[in-house]
Amino acid sequence: MRHTISIIVANEAGELSRIVGLFSARGYNIETISVGKTLDPRWSKATVVTRGDDTTIEQIVKQCARLARVKEVKAVTTLPHIEREMALIDVSVNRGDERQEVMNLVNIFRAKVVDISHDKMILEMSGTQEKVDTFIDMLKPLAVNEVTRSGTVAITRLSALEKDTQVAERANFASFA
Amino acid sequence: MEVATQTSTKVVPAAAVPLPEFESIRGAEVLIKGLIANGVDTIFGLPGGAVLHIYDELWRYRNDLTHYLVRHEQGAVHAAEGYARATGKVGVALVTSGPGATNAVTGIATAYMDSIPLVVITGQVPSGMIGTDAFQEVDTFGITLPVVKHSYLVRNVHELEDIVNEAFYLAQEGKPGPVVIDIPKDVTAQLTEYRGEQNAALVFEAVKPAPSLESIEAVVEKILSARQPVFYVGGGVVSAGAAEELARVVDLLRVPVTPTLMGLGGFPSADPHCLGMLGMHGTYAANLAVAESDLLIAVGVRFDDRVTGKLNTFAPNAEVIHIDIDASNIGKLRKPQIPVVADAKEALAALADRFAQESLEEDRLRDWWEQIRGWQSEVPLSCEYSETEIKPQQLIETLHKVTNGDAVVVTDVGQHQMWAAQFYPLKRNRQFLTSGGLGTMGFGLPAAMGAQLACPDQTVVAVVGDGGFQMTNQEIITAVQYKIPLKVVIMNNGYLGMVRQWQEMFYDRAYSEVDLSVSPDFVKLAEAYGAKGLRATTPDELERVLKEGLEYDGVAIMDIVVSKEENVFPIVPAGGESRNMILK
């Protein structure tokens, strides 16, 4: 099963390699990973997409939480959350009708044209991984030259009240696994 | 899924450190002062180019901090481990960059697998040369990454003091483990202030998690309703120093106890509730009791494959209570009915207090104990004797006799390790020091040296095989140099014995590359090192030689020639069902 895990880790040299190393050492595959600093620049948030059953994911969460510089680990997929991925797509467009077809798809998918030249367009697309996949798939009959994907980023969408419940559950976990 | 979110705000990264306002000293001196401030008086190491500034300061501080010059860096880390395992204090090793660091890796990994608190300081090439393939450069941070609890590459001398303090905290906090501090040479030469106080920018949370009242009640209820319960206790009991609490609980409950290899010493072997070791070479009664149990109370253990054998047939009918300080151990291999993330000492103390309030019937587990006593008398651990040859079990039994069972036993890895575990009954915590998780041959001799330094008033005996002995015997000279009265008993069967046993049992006796019959004369070797060398080849010499060696005022190497093709029994074949032991 696909899982998204978000990890808040110290924004220090080498800390990301510790997380990545943990995944490979324990035989977990990383499908995507993306990292950026949080509101507090001393901490970074990494979003990792991986696959595994519940036991595996529980192990990943616990193993990551053991690291000295990891502040918080969330199995995002088990919580109400929003996920997005961004892709930059380079498409060859040689004729007017091709350009029109690309524009149709761009409108349907609410993508953006970020660069255009006589024979090329660069598109920006953001959405769930599935939506990005579909967009790229739809473009394939035209000549797609190159795709760069950001990997998934995610954020939980708990209200303050719900957050309290989550914290309580976690406190329960602390003594009760 | 149970776990949605895990947080562990153990440490907040260091904030910017103010500019020096006191007298400036070298980074190397900051390091030494930091070690002393963290209670270090003993350090094992070997110098090299990248750590010259540090050794320069060590020389100036030689009255405050005793450095033991090993002959190979692996020996330094194992000695530090022996020191840590014998005391629970943090062991410290200091090595240079490149090969110094790579030689230390085996020791670091050994400590990691057994959760031993270490701080290992490695030199590094100057900051500006990192990444240029400089002389004796290696990516120590990267190489040690999978086998450390935490590690640092020090980039700024002003951070060094905080890093040293935090390293000692992390090595001991929660589940202990090794911490590596990699220091570029220029950082040790740069000037900074030494504040000499715990870094205020670091926020440390409580060290030892206690169980919740709720979880204790659940555990109590489960234990009281069980008819065939067993305590399965491991290294977590030893490292938490929970032997006394465990004894209190068992005294109240009269539940059988079986320690793992790493748990040996955590419960007295002579206690009638002790069934002996569990697992691949565990006792018949211990393995059967676990197999038949209806409740497994697992404390400070991790369901290691050498204990469980085939996982889904391990304690197949039992419900499991798992108490461990490391949440990631719980549910990793066996899903417990009651998980408790807690320090073993805290949890067992809470249980003892709670059970003290119950009025428990003396013989409420009578049927269970009758069954267990039956298994014990059916297949006891038995020592064989011969008129002409010394049997390996007999060697351990005699060692136990001549040391009154009081010695700290440090083993290497292999057959002798298992026989030592089986035939040397233990009285107290931290009396049995062994490389359990990684199974590092060569561990025994240097670890015993470190343990002897930590426990000068106790008899410390390294029990090693002729194979493992030859991996680190260069440290004999270290013991001779510093007059550490190291005692080494070589169980010499002329083979890599455990491998030979597996080849005999599982590979049609094809003895592929296990013959060590061409070995140095260990007595002459000892003498060449300036140690006492002794040899026993017949049963009638055994006791006299052991006594003479142990009574010798100095380093003694006892070469005990034992029967060559003896096997360790019982044995549960790797991955087999633990109730299917091969008994002879």
What key phrases describe this protein's structure?
heterodimer, A: 177 residues, alpha+beta, five-stranded antiparallel β-sheet, four-stranded antiparallel β-sheet, 5 helices, 37% helix, B: 584 residues, alpha/beta, six-stranded parallel β-sheet, 22 helices, 15% strand, globular
- State the helical fraction of chain A: 25-40%
Number of β-strand runs of chain A: 9
What characterizes the major β-sheet of chain A? 5 strands, antiparallel
N-to-C series of helices and strands of chain A:
EHEEHEEHEEHEEH
Uncertain runs of chain A are: 164-177
Radius of gyration from the alpha-carbon trace of chain B, in angstroms: 25 Å
How large is the share of residues in beta strands of chain A?
35-45%
Low-confidence blocks of residues of chain B: none
Estimate the global geometry of chain B from the Cα principal axes: globular
Distance from N terminus to C terminus of chain B (CA atoms, Å) equals 45 Å
Quaternary organisation of the protein chains = heterodimer
Q: Pairing-aware structural class of the strands and helices of chain B?
A: alpha/beta
Helix content percent band of chain B? 25-40%
Radius of gyration of chain A: 20 Å
Count up the helices of chain B.
Answer: 22
Q: What does it look like?
A:
The complex is a heterodimer of chains A (177) and B (584). Chain A has 177 residues and is of the alpha+beta class. Helix content of chain A is 37%, strand content 38%. In chain A, the strands form 2 sheets. In chain A, strands 5, 6, 7, 8 and 9 form a 5-stranded antiparallel sheet that branches. In chain A, strands 2-3-1-4 form a 4-stranded antiparallel sheet, covered by helices on one side. The relative contact order of chain A is 0.17. Chain B is α/β, with parallel strands linked by helices. In chain B, helix 3 packs across helix 17 (444-454). Chain B is globular. The two termini of chain B are 45 Å apart. Classes of the chains: A alpha+beta (177), B alpha/beta (584). The interface between A and B is large, with 41 and 43 residues.
